[in-house]
Specification:
This protein has 405 residues and is an alpha/beta fold. It folds into 3 domains: 2-23 and 219-300, Helicase, Ruva Protein, domain 3; 44-215, 3-Layer(aba) Sandwich (Rossmann fold); 304-404, Winged helix-like DNA-binding domain superfamily/Winged helix DNA-binding domain (Arc Repressor Mutant, subunit A, Orthogonal Bundle), CATH 1.10.10. Helix content is 54%, strand content 11%. It has helices at 2-5, 8-21, 44-54, 76-93, 111-121, 133-147, 158-165, 168-175, 202-208, 220-234, 244-254, 259-275, 283-303, 307-320, 328-342, 349-361, 387-395, 398-404; strands at residues 66-70, 98-99, 102-104, 150-156, 184-191, 211-215, 326-327, 365-371, 377-383. Strands 1, 2, 3, 4, 5 and 6 form a 6-stranded parallel beta sheet that branches. Strands 7-9-8 form a 3-stranded antiparallel beta sheet. Helix 3 (44-54) crosses helix 4 and helix 13 crosses helix 17. The mean pLDDT is 89. The chain binds a DNA duplex (22 and 22 nucleotides) through helix 16, strand 8 and strand 9.
DNA sequence: CTTCCACAGGAACCAGCGGACC
DNA sequence: GGTCCGCTGGTTCCTGTGGAAG
């Protein structure tokens, strides 16, 4: 352990030396998830389709509603944003009154907030709460009609909204044109969930699906092209060892052809290489990055859990030790002991069941409803993620740390 | 074949909060 | 300043259920 004997100056000197000497990145930012490139390889047909539907706006007509499906990281949002950017430019040149708000309904996840965003896009401020949603909708309609313009509303990740709040708002928006005299509205819905339409009222479905477009997952080869394209501006020449791009592409292709994941992976591989003072990004760096992404995700998710979920997870962790399975009853018993020890209130079994489901959906644990015959129905619970990462996430909470002693 | 366990998970309801409206 | 509103994060009460034990 040379590190223990070296003195601080030497260590820091060494680290600074390595980090500044080696140059891997030319422009790291182009690998970040929110970077919007002006070239999107293998999305020509989708760009064409979106553009041809929305371009009606340039002639002053209301474009057909458009519905876009595709898994995460297939370029849906990027394509739409790119087309919208150009379209708004053109409309301005031609003096057409066109407004295209893009609303992420996962971030703004209530009907209220969606409407608030819409009103804000018309240039008006809205209180964060306090008004009935129906009233807000009435206001939106009024202001919109007064302005007399063409509005294309892009609702990103719309499946979240509908699953949480139903298709009420969507239904109203698809029919809003009947109540407007001076303005027109088109809708673009974007969803990750391919079976999403089963959640919709048939009338909404047919109206929203005037035009439909599917974004297929990228293949490994296509991901390679995307990564190569970005790598050109992201890395200094010769910084990538042979096979790095191929491996990133292959790993991400396995994850449903997710381009975002592929880009993350490449970026983090580069960061690891840089930190190690290596002059090249190697395949080994990619493998490390892959593990790190998963662990970081787990630590972060666990850290941001509410206290009672953490206590449940802590119960699961100690009961399973990362190996065997446990059951709802066992977990609840352990959980009650923990809350008693901390002197805090205990949630009901009903609520705990929901919290366990949430942990399952987050991918931290996996559960399966099983019958143990006379011993009743229960959920079989196994820890799905790296126990060390889970422990780290949990111990960052002072309450849990107190329990662990 | 029937019983019966130990929960799953739906439905309805509630308290408290922050904030706008009148 | 009381009232109304939506949201969060709970509770209470309830009906449903797969399969080992009897």
């Amino acid at each position: 352990m040379a590190v223990l004997t070296a003195d601080l100056d030497d260590i820091l000197e060494d680290v600074f030396e390595r980090v500044t000497q080696t140059r891997i990145f030319k422009n790291r930012d182009v690998l970040l998830p929110d970077y919007l490139p002006d070239k999107l390889p293998h999305r020509e047909t989708q760009i064409r389709k979106v553009a041809s539907v929305l371009a009606q706006a340039l002639r002053g007509y209301r474009p057909n509603n458009l519905f876009i499906y595709g898994l995460t990281g297939t370029g849906k949002t990027a394509v739409v944003k790119l087309v919208v950017r150009k379209l708004v430019e053109k409309a301005r040149e031609r003096g057409i009154r066109l407004e295209i708000p893009i609303i992420n309904t996962k971030r703004d996840d209530t009907p209220y907030r969606v409407l608030a965003k819409l009103i804000e896009s018309l240039g008006l401020r809205v209180p964060a709460t306090g008004i009935a949603t129906a009233e807000l909708y009435a206001r939106f309609k009024k202001f919109l009609d007064k302005k007399g313009l063409l509005m294309i509303i892009v609702l990103d990740e719309i499946d979240y909204h509908v699953k949480k709040h139903g298709d009420d708002l969507l239904y109203k928006l698809t029919r809003i044109n009947e109540e407007l005299s001076r303005s027109k509205v088109s809708l673009v819905g974007i969803t990750n969930d391919v079976n999403f339409t089963s959640w919709l009222d048939p009338r909404v479905k047919s109206s929203l699906g005037e035009e439909e477009l599917v974004f297929p997952p990228y293949t490994a080869d296509q991901l390679k092209d995307i990564l190569r394209e970005r790598a050109k501006t992201a890395f200094v020449e010769g910084a990538l060892e042979d096979g790095v791009i191929e491996l990133c592409a292959a790993l991400a292709a396995r994850e449903n052809g997710d381009a975002r994941k592929a880009l993350d992976l490449l970026r983090i591989s580069g960061e690891i290489a840089q930190r190690e003072g290596s002059s090249k990004v190697t395949v080994a760096h990619v493998r490390k990055a892959w593990e790190q992404i998963e662990k970081d995700r787990v630590v972060e998710v666990v850290r941001s859990l509410p206290l009672h979920s953490k206590l449940l997870l802590y119960s699961i962790l100690t009961l399973t030790k990362g190996e065997r399975a446990t059951y709802t009853g066992e977990v609840y018993k352990r959980y009650k002991e923990l809350t008693a020890e901390l002197g805090i209130e205990t949630l009901t079994l009903r609520r705990v069941g929901d919290l366990i489901s949430e942990l399952d959906m987050l991918g931290i644990i996996s559960t399966e409803v099983v019958s143990r015959g006379r011993r009743g129905m229960t959920r079989m619970i196994t820890l799905e993620s790296d126990p060390e990462a889970v422990r780290r996430g949990l111990l960052s909470d002072p309450m849990v740390a107190e329990l662990a002693g």
